[in-house]
Design brief:
Blueprint lengths: L1 E2 L6 E6 L10 E6 L7 E10 L2 H5 L17 E9 L11 E5 L11 E5 L4 E2 L6 H5 L2 H11 L9 E5 L4 H12 L3 E6 L4 H6 L4 E4 L16 E6 L3 H7 L3 E9 L17 E4 L5 H4 L2 H19 L8 E5 L3 H9 L6 E5 L3
Parallel strand pairs: 9-10, 9-12, 10-11, 12-13, 13-14, 15-16
Antiparallel strand pairs: 1-5, 2-3, 4-5, 4-7, 4-16, 5-6, 6-8
């Protein structure tokens, strides 16, 4: 194993103890994990928090043991290499999206599969890099489901969130005419990034899509939930596409030989179990392109809210209760 690891054998990490409450995470000193074959060890600089982080704290949702380190997004420097890893990674600045089954980013160090690494250009900060993987790569997976048709009308539901922030920009770059569905406070930002129209949303419980707007869109991308996505399907034209980011439709949204709609689901985390090396190469190549677009002002990153490592549970709880706007970050190893 090649490494630049400090002589210390332990590090600080936030650990899970069978509670759904972020405040029940415990800051402990535990052994630094060693990179297995095909892995690197990243010394984290910034941790990106995401809604999935508080959702999976609920016992039973993921097969975690007491003391597991949560967290899926991080950015830092490669300080050790497992067997078989390209030696050029040592010392590189990287960002990553971690499997929920592995030790996560809520620690000073995280073991990460080589194939999941995204090199960070020198001109990009760790803050911006750590804010990218979960929301921007999810948005990229979603937009890649669609054939790029110039001026095709696209509805993005839940556009005010982190995934929507990047979806609007990716869709605009591909030539779609975008209608963003979200709280009106997000409209100026989304219009500045390429949304042609904005409508209030999401739909209220039991509210249906207005009948006079049926058959309006080539595609709908929904990041609210499966029920909300199902209620938006009347908005689709024949041969249209419905893409679900939160959950998926449980029933086909049209009768046989009807509008012949296509259904898609997006689950970034599933690639850790089912993605082959080609799929991961496609994903990390997209990540590198996203970083390049940010450096060259072709993409706009989210505004960020950053705290120190010892404040992580409090910020995660505020994220759960939507008590602020912006991308939550935790700085570590300054």
């Amino acid at each position: 194993m090649s490494n630049n690891i400090p002589h210390a054998q332990t590090h600080l990490a936030w650990t899970w103890h069978n509670s759904a409450e972020p405040h029940d995470l415990q800051l402990e000193r535990i052994a630094i994990p060693q990179p297995a074959a095909g892995d690197v060890l990243v010394r984290n600089q910034v941790i990106g928090l995401n809604p999935v982080d508080w959702k999976v704290l609920t016992p039973g949702l993921v097969d975690w043991q007491t003391g597991h380190v949560p967290g899926v997004d991080g950015a830092g420097t490669v300080v050790a290499l497992g067997e078989g890893v390209d030696k050029r990674w040592l010392g590189k600045r990287v960002a990553y999206h971690q499997s929920l089954a592995r030790p996560g980013s809520y620690a000073e160090h995280t073991p990460v599969a080589e194939r999941a690494l995204i090199a960070i250009p020198d001109a990009l900060s760790f803050d911006v890099a750590a804010s990218i993987p979960c929301p921007a790569l999810t948005a990229w997976l979603a937009i890649e489901k669609l054939p790029a048709i110039q001026n095709a009308p696209l509805l993005i539901s839940g556009a005010g969130g982190a995934v929507g922030h990047y979806l609007v920009q990716f869709a605009a770059a591909r030539g779609f005419v975008i209608t963003a569905m979200c709280n009106p406070r997000h409209w100026p930002r989304l219009q500045a990034m390429g949304a042609a129209h904005c409508i209030a949303g999401p739909l209220a419980p039991e509210q249906v899509w207005p009948e006079d707007k049926n058959g309006t869109f080539f595609a709908v991308i929904d990041s609210v939930n499966e029920d909300h996505a199902a209620r938006l399907t009347p908005a689709l034209k024949a041969n249209g596409h419905i893409i679900c980011i939160q959950g998926r439709l449980t029933q086909w949204p049209c009768a046989p030989f009807g509008r012949t709609l296509s259904m898609h689901e997006v689950a970034l985390g599933a690639l850790h179990w089912y993605g082959d090396d080609e799929a991961w190469n496609d994903l990390t190549t997209a990540g590198v392109q996203i970083f390049d677009d940010l450096v060259n002002n072709r993409l706009v990153a989210e505004e960020t809210v950053a705290v120190d490592f010892d404040e992580l549970p409090q910020l995660l709880d505020k994220l759960r209760h939507r008590q602020f706007s912006g991308k939550p970050l935790v700085r570590i190893n300054p």
